[in-house]
Amino acid sequence: MTDMSHQCVIVGIAGASASGKSLIASTLYRELREQVGDEHIGVIPEDSYYKDQSHLSMEERVKNQL
């Protein structure tokens, strides 16, 4: 058996809106938590990177995307 005590695995989940990304992420989290424990798992939601631009005009928002 391979010693995995110092290995790191990153899993990215992508897909269209309402395609089940959050469901897959929460299912994976629950399953892995049972196997390896909470202290070895992290979840970084894409919403953590969202920058609110509601105070900008649509023209300014488009400029920021380029």
UniProtKB/TrEMBL annotation:
Q: Which domain of life is it from?
A: Bacteria
Example of a GO MF term = uridine kinase activity
Q: What keywords is this UniProt entry annotated with? A: Kinase, Transferase
What EC number(s) does its UniProt record assign?
2.7.1.48
Q: Which SUPFAM superfamilies does the annotation name?
A: P-loop containing nucleoside triphosphate hydrolases (SSF52540)
Q: From the Swiss-Prot or TrEMBL record, give the protein name.
A: Uridine kinase
Source organism of the structure:
Klebsiella pneumoniae
Encoding gene per record:
udk_2
